[in-house]
Amino acid sequence: MTARAAGDVVTVGILTFRRPEGLRESLPRLLEQVRQVPGAELLVIDNDDLPSAQGIVAERAAAGDPVRYVHEPDPGIVSARNRALDEARGDVLVFIDDDELPSPAWLTTMLATHERYGCAAVAGAVVAQFESEPDRWITAGKFFERKRYPTGTRVPAAGTGNLLLDLRAVRAWGLRFDQAFRFTGGSDTAFTSELVARGGEIVFCDEASVVDVVPVERATRSWVLQRAFRNGNARARVHLVGVRSRGAALQGRVTLAAQGAARVAGGAVRSLGGIATLDTGLRAQGARTAVRGAGMVAGAVGGVYQEYRR
């Protein structure tokens, strides 16, 4: 991809669903950074059934801030992500979640990385911050730790929690977020994996970090294990979604089921080892591996875990 043209519009897209307090906290920080980039705008996509976030955004717009509001009532984050693709006015779209806070110079750093590497996408670091001190089992299990890489590292896929997309590549290849994942999660992994399969590069930028604020209700053993199962289930489905032939699909299902079963067994052994040695981290990480493996097995045999159905 070539460098962004002077005066081109940069759209920062924040997807929101019934998080008014998080949106009120993030909007001023995002707008502060958007104002520093000529031609940049903030786009709020409200995925609630009713336009519940409209008033919050209208307050900022009335004050002259470069922010637009769009209501996308079709349930599921896939529809909100696709609406952002459609609403973006220029060639660069930067996604951030409504429960995330950008680091200083986050936006300019993302844009500088994109221009430096000429890539189809830039994935930034996501760092968890707990609202209150969680159970030691949660932190020892590293449930909220995301992988980080040196800036410039090419990665095979990325989430949309902190992601810049060059829309020239997206439009050229006709990429969309797949509605098959609307209630399950995984559409961002499927989308970015396809981007790479088409020849695009996703470059990691460690300096352009955002803070993921983890509320108390998510920092529980039941929630993180549920998420581990969902991640395993989505991983299997992402691998299978593009397979066309019956033979290849069967082989893929068998392979994924075997991989998932191996994780269940290995995770169980690891967790038991943690119990025997009083190692909290080993016990928690083993449980995560086992439950994620169970999700993979379920996905391999056609099970669909719809965490986001409403």
TrEMBL record:
Key words of the record: Glycosyltransferase, Transferase
Query: Is Secreted included in the keywords of this UniProt record?
Result: no
Which pathway? Cell wall biogenesis; cell wall polysaccharide biosynthesis
- Which InterPro entries does the record match to this protein? Glyco_trans_2-like (IPR001173), Nucleotide-diphossugar_trans (IPR029044)
Source organism, top-level taxon: Bacteria
Matching SUPFAM superfamilies, A to Z? Nucleotide-diphospho-sugar transferases
| Gene Ontology MF: a single term | glycosyltransferase activity
Q: Which Pfam families does the UniProt record give?
A: Glycos_transf_2 (PF00535)
* Span of domain Glycosyltransferase 2-like: 11-151
Family statement drawn from the similarity comment of this UniProt entry: Belongs to the glycosyltransferase 2 family.
Q: PANTHER family of this UniProt entry?
A: GALACTOFURANOSYLTRANSFERASE GLFT2 (PTHR43179:SF12), RHAMNOSYLTRANSFERASE WBBL (PTHR43179)
Protein name listed in UniProt:
Glycosyltransferase family 2 protein
Q: Lineage, please?
A: Bacteria, Bacillati, Actinomycetota, Actinomycetes, Micrococcales
